[in-house]
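ok trying again, last paste got cut off:
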Amino acid sequence: GLFASYSDVQFRAPVLAGDIIEATATVTAVGRRSRQLAFEARVVCRAEPSGSARGESSASVLSEPVVVVTATGTVVVPAAG
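nice, full thing came through this time. structure:
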């Protein structure tokens, strides 16, 4: 398929260097030659400030993920041949 467009992209919270991100895409509508998708990215582990006793690349698992980006998009799929 070919990704045709993004729409309604919303940046909801900051992402810090070293954060661990989880991203999902869910098909929300199916057309004859297109698919609508809903995207969401969440921070699941937050980077700890530099100088942490655990090291420079340490991060803590968040009790609740933080939604940082949401968007919708359209994918065009080839015709069945």
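cool. The longest strand covers residues 59-76. The beta strands are 2-11, 20-30, 34-47, 59-76.
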